[in-house]
Each structure stands twice: as structure tokens, then as C-alpha cells.
């Protein structure tokens, strides 16, 4: 998109990009669904990494050419563990198999995600769940949707009545972060109604956007984990910040997404 385009033209262009992005993630999801159903055996870390890479390659063989054709000038990020800010300009931030380990274990919690980031702001995102056929989408200024139906975060105003969720630290995470995750779960077990702990992060965040879960937090999150959900939750009327309630950026060391009615209370719990 030319920088000289008017705002209305940009909105139309981005809407069309989102429609085509949805086609790409659904196609990749179909290919991954064909590989799903049996537990993939592995005995060593090397065998695990090869199995994960085989799934990634299957999805990327569809996603990369399709998305590159849509935005040839955009950069490309496919390492789901990368964090921090991106250089200026447009970037595709892709997780070809969000929840890849779950896929290998024949567990249903996995997805395909693609997010267009412009100057470090997520502009559009598509999250496809191949086993249910559901596709969550968000476009800046146009709301969040599930298969075309508008989404809205919950109206819960009491953390004590809330279902909250988190993901574990990444493999080989720093011990300080691991301990912080553990203490935050303990704090939430005292203050919230129910605490869910599982991977991947994106599936918790689509539930926050849909009003099924009231809050999600994570420490040391990666861009591909958090950018799709950050846009979905924001466009569904939720609030995002770091765990202390301060503005969140991809450089932040923590992340909190919540319904507005409990956001401050959740941040207070996590800050103890």
C-alpha cells in the first residue's frame, strides 16, 4: 500500500488483505489437519525438533507464498519464540502451528495464525482452528469476529467471579521467569474463581475476545504468541497492558489482556 493512500482507501485495502489472509490460513490448516490424529513418537530432543519442523514446513509451504504475494514488500517473521520490536514498515508475523506440541500429541488445542504488523502495530490478524473450522479475525478499527459474527469481551466486574488463564514459560526459560509464573498462578488461585493453565497463548486470547474467559496473562511472551490475541481482544473491547497495568509493547516483559471490569484488579493481583 502506498503511503499516499487516504485512510478510507487503506481501510478497504486492509479489509481485502484480511479476506485473503483468511483463505491462506484455512488452506494451511487443512494441510495440517491431514497430518493430525496419531501421536507422533519421539525419543530425543532432536527427534522432537524434526517433528515440529515437519509440521511448520507443511504450513509454511502454503502460507509464505500466499502472504508474500499479498504483500511482497513486507518482511517475514516465522520464529514463534522471537520477541521484541520489529524494524519499521510492514511485517508478516506468522505462527504456522500455534500449539505444535499439542498437534504432535493428538491434542486439539492448536491453530494457524497470521498477523500483519505495520510499524509495530498489528493491523489485521486471522486465527484458524482447523479441527473446529472456526476462524477468528480482527481488523484495526473494524472489530473482532468469529466467522463473521462480532465478538465482545465479558462484562464481568469481579475477579472473584472470573475464569482466568495463563500459559507456561517457554522451554528453557530463565529460572526467574519460571518462578514468576508460579507465584502469579498462586496469586490468581487466591483471587480468581478458576485458573486455567495450558498452551498455546493464542487460544486463551481468542476466548478472552469471545467473552468465554475473563483474563489472560503471560510473562516473557513472544510476538507470535501475543500479537494476534492483542488485536482480537482490543477490537473486542478488552484492555491490554503489561502485568502491572502499564502500556504493553512487544518489548514488554509481561502481558495482560482482560475484560475492562476486572483489568485493574487482575493487574493488582499479578503485581503482588
The gyration radius over C-alpha positions equals 18 Å
Strand order of the largest sheet: 1-2-3-4-5-6-7
Helix content: 40-55%
Q: Report the strand count.
A: 12
Detail the poorly predicted runs.
1-12
Quaternary structure type: single chain
Largest sheet: 7 strands, mixed
SSE succession: HHEEHEEEEEEHEHEHEEH
Tell me, briefly, the overall form. globular
Beta fraction: 15-25%
Give the N-to-C terminal Cα separation.
45 Å
Structural class: alpha+beta
Could you report the average pLDDT, rounded to the nearest whole number? 92
Tell me the number of helical segments per DSSP (H or I, 4 or more residues long).
7
Structure overview:
- Helix content is about 40%, strand content about 25%.
- With about 270 residues, the protein is an alpha+beta fold.
- A hairpin with a 2-residue loop joins strand 3 and strand 4.
- The longest helix has 28 residues, at about 5-35.
- The radius of gyration is 18 Å and the shape is globular.
- Residues about 1-10 have low confidence and may be disordered.
Attribute tags:
globular, seven-stranded mixed beta sheet, 7 helices, alpha+beta, disordered N terminus
